[in-house]
Amino acid sequence: MSTSLFEKLGGNAAVDAAVDIFYRKVLSDDRISSFFEGVDMDKQAAKQKAFLTMAFGGPHNYTGKDMRAAHAPLVARGLNDSHFDAVAGHLQATLKELNVPAELIAEVMTIAGSTRNDVLCR
Amino acid sequence: MPRIFFEKQSYTCQGNESVLDCLTSHGVPIPSSCRSGICQTCLMRAVEGEVPLAAQQGLKETLRVQNYFLACVCKPTNDLKVALPDAEVGARTRVTVLAKEVLGGNITRLRLGCTLPLDYRPGQFVQLHRDDGLVRSYSIASLPQLEEPLELHIRRLPEGRMSGWIHDILKTGDTLEISGPTGQGFYLPGQPDQGLLLIGTGSGLAPLWGIARDALEQGHTGPIHLYHGSRDASGLYLINELLELAEQYPNLSYTPCLSGPNIPKGFAAGRAEQVAFSHLPKLTGWRVFLCGHPTMVATTRKKAFLTGASMKDIYADPFVIAADSIKPAA
Questions:
Q1: Which of A21, B82, B153, B193 has its CA 20 to 30 A from that of A98?
Q2: Which of B59, B311, B314 to mutate to test the interface with A (most CBs of A within 10 A)?
Q3: Domain formed by A8-56+63-119, architecture
Q4: What is the ipTM of this complex?
């Protein structure tokens, strides 16, 4: 049996290692930080974790419908491709910082990219 | 097959069912999202019975020790009595006012006697119930291991119904009811050399006074930095007690901070969080406790995270000053 992407990345421990780094990058980025004003940081960190788990090929209950509902208010406030790209860039930088091999990063980025139309409600 | 007890009903867990599946299949509405043990939306607490370790993966340490678990990945092996996180756990207890003392800064210290020992940790909060139904939450400043009476610091709020009543009318010997405790902001041993940063405003000192003394009692050896802020010196209290404690324990440092224009000798100028960040610009590896004004707590929590503290190491209890809030009001 071949090893899954999630296992290759290191499973839950990898998500735990990535979530602080990723969320810190996202919150520090002035291009996108306004979308996170006033949100509960603990709840947001848990959502980031759910997203990373999904992008890492781990267990999830992802539905495009939930993703759309969650982001619709942000799209109404101007969320667009440039913001999606900024977040994707932080994901990539996080994985590089954790010395994840390039081919695995590419797989993660493909999964993350597959959510673009749902996130932007298109 | 294990049974799940929830709000006075019992449900039988079929086969490999999770607690979440068991309850929702019986029509019990439990919030959930990822159903994979990640998002923590379905957080619940086991009031009785042991939860499998796997159901606590990824939870904050202070949640684990209180038997919180994720219902979606909890496959129970024994009977469990469970509750939602916000539910009032346990019965109300009648307590007697043993002492009432003005500490300055519009703060009154209440010492309450319980007939049964209350199982709590310093830094958690209890709900005070007045006999007419008025409820407010207050943080706990006392240490159970020293068998201190339950200690609360009540700041008088403008037109505060409970705080005004406590300041003006309540007297030694009177009784009222408490419930709880609740709250995740407390000290846990295990990393005795970790740096602890405690920042509070107003009566936000109450839990921090409890947490700092608890950490010292439990043999914490790492640096403990406590910053207490107010606009002027009359808003600070327990200054001498804290200075004495810092004298006794070299790893404790205490900085009283004033944001107003008059800064007497011995006080730092600026808001408590500003002074703290000027002393400690990098918080990587630190454990952070915040309590007090909601804006201070929200901005400081974010800054603590951005300057390196891990999300799981930041404990923040904002005071919500609202008519029928159950969050701490002092």
A1: B193
A2: B311
A3: Orthogonal Bundle (1.10)
A4: 0.87
